[in-house]
Amino acid sequence: MTEIDMLTMAYPPLIVFAAALLVLVLPRVLGFALGALSLASVVAVALFAPEGAHLTGTFLGFAEIQPFYIDDFTRMMGVALGFLGTFAVIYAYSSEASKTMAAFALAYVASAIGAAFAGDWLVLVFMWEIMALTSTLLVWHYGGDAVRAGYRYALAHGIGGSLMLFAVIAHYAQVGTFAYGEGVDYADAVLAGGIADGLPLLLAVLGIGVNVAFVGFHTWLPDTYPRPHFAASVFLAAFTTKTSAYVLLRAVPEGNIYLAYMGGLMAVYGVVFALLQHDMRALLSYHIQAQLGYMVAGIGIGTTIGAAGAMGHLFNNVLYKSLLFMAVGVVIYRTRENDLYKLGGLWREMPLTAIAFFIGALSITAVPGFSGFISKGMVLDAASGYFGGPEHQALYWLLFLGAIGTFLSFIKLGYYVFFHGESDREVRDAKPGQTTAMFAVGGACVVLGLPAIGWPVFTDLLPLVDGAQFAGTDGLETLNPYSMGHLQDSAILIAISAVGFKIIRKPLSKLDYSDPALIVNPAMYHLGRGTMRVTTWTYATVDAAVVNVVTSCYWIGNNPVLAVDAAARRLPMVDVKEHRAADGGHPSTIHLRTGIGTTVLLLTILLTVVLWLLIN
Amino acid sequence: MSNLAELLPALLIAAPILLATVPIVLGLRFDRTGWSVAAITTTALFAATAYLAAAVYETGRVVHVLGGWGEPQGIGIELVADEFSVLIALLVTVTAAAVLAYTRTGGPRGNTFYTGYLLLVGGLLGLSMTGDVFNMFVFLEIVGLATYAMIASGDGPESAVAALKYLILGTLGASMYLIGVGFLFMATGALNMDVLGEAIPQIADNGGSDLTLLRAAFAFIFVGFALKVAQWPLHSWQPDAYQHAPDGVTPVIAALVSTVSAYALGRIMYNVFGPEFLTATPYLTEIVVTVGAVSVLAGSTLAVIQRDVKRMFAYSSVSQFGLIVVAYGLVTQTAFVGAVIHLIGHGVIKAGLFIGAGVVAVGYGARTVDEYAGLASNRPFAAGSIALLLIALIGIPPSAGFIGKWYIAVGAVEAELWPIAIVIFLSTMLTLAYSARLLEKMYFTPATGVDSPHPAGVATDGGRAGAVSIGMLGILIVTAIVAIGLGFAGGAFFEWLEPFTSEVFN
């Protein structure tokens, strides 16, 4: 067995899960080091393991199980999640995260990696449910506010997970196999397979929709992510949503125009609400939704460039969104302040954190030279029909609007935290571990965006793209992110945003000092309240009814004899005797016995029926 | 090796039946020899069965032809040990040996009891290994007679009535079976299962009056077994028998007697009639599935309304065997394996539960659900083991109950019989209902101060009252662990049965 073959035995989730258990018992330094190392090894396994399905076997009686599946997509997911995970653990170490939290986080990462490496829907749905469970534990572990938010989070993911489970069952019932790429064949799909059309597809899109925060299904996201420990937020921000976006591509490989517009809507909705936030992590959380909008749009468009752009954006997003959470986490760690309006001038106090933050901000806002520029450009190209394929002008402008909003909100966040007057407090900069983590991830963001150095590495990692070439609708096309047109677009974007921020800064800051929901949309408030009242009333009624039913069932269960007597009394022509036991307690047995004669009669009847049915 | 292995099927049956006389003979001089004889015999039987299983694993099925009586006519007497029958024989010998750990102090005692015990074991082993349908009737009767005697050994008139009820109804069931065998013989002129298995497809192809005979034969045999396996509404002998049999006897008859009858039904359906006949005959699978499904629901509903714990477990058996009959009726490989696993798993679980009921009755004086209150704090080990067994019965993974139900459910989905999947789900819910009642009483209801209305257990012939020996408690705990441990063996069962099922299902 060669070394490469050995890699097929190294099941990444198991390695990480083992590390999660060891963190609990080992000394803190050693445990965290092992955790980081296990995730680094995931990157190695993802890069070097040979293509194909490994460790195939039988699970619960189903034969074609592929828990460890390597192709271009899972390779990229493994590299992204493993790389980010490594530094997130280092960051957590120097952020005073407890051993228990690290264990939960690593278990969560393990399940996300398991979902990423799954080669069939059964393993996927299994990991999907574990991921929901472990991430809830990670939130709950922090206590306080996080507990209630964690309940709502668990509820949302419970519903999403059930939908996904039903989708997979229905898919199996329809095509008879769980494996990716088998049983279903869509004509225009960018990769083979997908979820069977009809009910399974609908259920799957809704189930995944909860996890990728479709507008309307997204409330758990800004609700939960700002509440736990700031190092836990780094983990949460990277894994669930991104893994789910990848699964969405697996499920809907041929795209769907409604899905694409949902993506556009998410981008705009996310940035609008991000602009209104003053809790820093809530702002970033809404941006997760907005960025997911780009991925959903790319997948929904359904062209090769769209899907490749979505996957590229996913990869970049894992890096820069976590980087932003790390930088903001350091600010919270040093200042104990979540509200961005209560900060300012931190540039002088913590220059390293500021640099890291701006690398992330420049990446997410897609400034040329940073990683976000390339992938966001690909999605926009897919929407505008730059490489042929259908044109979706409205979608393009939605995404463009989203890009402007992204700019505005990051200028806002950066401006109020790091500039805006003098800092009224003296704080130290990030700790060495935090700095290492931020600059490692930030470095990747910069390098991947550089035309000559990172660009080839990035395209090599990207699935569906070969070198810089990919199969467009009219033959081979070559990617050229640094074309004149792209740079022009970018310049326009920056110009609009810079001017726009000047204009809206004042009204925006006024808006934010009070409850935005009240001023932006009083109707929403009353509507919400009304709905809440109706819901509460309905809930109370249903609850009372359910409690009654349960109570009576319980009574029947505990007093079966009395229940049977009571039922029998209501029947006509049945004479029920009072039979009390001698000790005054419950009657001891029910007199429902069938005698020998009756049984023989029943036997004769049964035999007659069976004979008649069989011999006729 | 091979010579010994070929002899073993005959020895396994002859030895316990012959040795059954020993306790009586020795009883002329010594008072208490029965237990020792039974213990030595069952242990040796277990060792021999294990050896036979190893031989079957290596060389495939082992056939013993009795008396060199001719092959060609198809009426020779054969004993067959294959993957299916050896598995059941292992269950029989292990359970028979294990329950002795309970009866040592838990009673019943006396040399005659152990004579009956060995006779029962011999009959059960014969029933598992017989290769022809007529001797199946003979062994069915041997098992029946031994069981009647053992049920009647309980104290009090109720045991006698229960035994009488079982005697009349059981004999009726066996007669139905015998009539069916008669029809089979008329149609084919053969009694040997292998010969029948080859003749029946041909007759089914030719059609005509012989086919009608075959169908009538199936009807009689199925109804006969439906009574023996205690399918609703022919179950009425079973709750009385289980409840009023002595505590030491119930585990054996609950775990083995109906189980081996259900095994025999499976053997007849799949080896003699064969899957093709089952699926080709109109209404046949529907009848089997309906009878099973109705039993599942009726049995578990009746279990929910019981107060007496042993009676509750008895009705639970009605429902669990319904599940097995349903699985037979699905006629898929997965469902069949599920049925076999559930046979074994249910046998282990029920043996454990009835041992538990005995231990609690002797040590705590509790026989009804209400009296189980506070058991967990007073008898933590007994309560814990019963709780584990109940969890296995519900089918919460990992447990023996789960894998059986799982394979049957998968089989139902494969056969696209969605109502059956719903029935399995409902049965799980109802099992949960009656198990939860008991769990709730044991763990969350404090014991009432009032003394139990039942006197703390008195062994049949005046043993020490209220004494739970280490053996009794130990075997309960071991059974609970085994019931959970079997939950990891789903794949192993599947592979073990592979040669058998692949031959049956081609």
From TrEMBL, chain A:
Q: What topology does the record note for this protein and the membrane?
A: Multi-pass membrane protein
Keyword Secreted part of the UniProt annotation: no
Subcellular location, principal? membrane
Q: Where in the cell is it found?
A: Cell membrane
Q: Which UniProt keywords apply?
A: Cell membrane, Membrane, Oxidoreductase, Transmembrane, Transmembrane helix
Q: Name one Pfam family in it.
A: Proton_antipo_M
Q: What is this protein called?
A: Monovalent cation/H+ antiporter subunit D
TrEMBL record, chain B:
- What is the species listed in this Swiss-Prot or TrEMBL entry? Natronorubrum sulfidifaciens JCM 14089
Bilayer topology: Multi-pass membrane protein
Could you tell me what this protein is called? NADH/ubiquinone/plastoquinone
Domain (NADH:quinone oxidoreductase/Mrp antiporter transmembrane) spans 131-431
Keywords, A to Z, come to: Cell membrane, Membrane, Transmembrane, Transmembrane helix, Ubiquinone
Where on the tree of life does the source sit, at the highest rank?
A: Archaea
Q: Name one GO molecular function term.
A: NADH dehydrogenase (ubiquinone) activity
Q: Which GO terms describe its cellular component?
A: plasma membrane
Q: Name one GO biological process term.
A: ATP synthesis coupled electron transport
Transmembrane regions listed in the UniProt entry: 6-28, 35-57, 84-102, 114-130, 136-154, 166-191, 211-230, 251-270, 282-305, 312-331, 343-366, 378-397, 417-436, 473-494
Question: Which cell locations does it reside in?
Answer: Cell membrane
Upper taxonomic classification of the species?
A: Archaea, Methanobacteriati, Methanobacteriota, Stenosarchaea group, Halobacteria
Q: Does the keyword Ribosomal protein apply?
A: no
Which InterPro entries does UniProt cross-reference here?
CPA3_Na-H_Antiporter_D (IPR050586), NADH_UbQ_OxRdtase (IPR003918), ND/Mrp_TM (IPR001750)
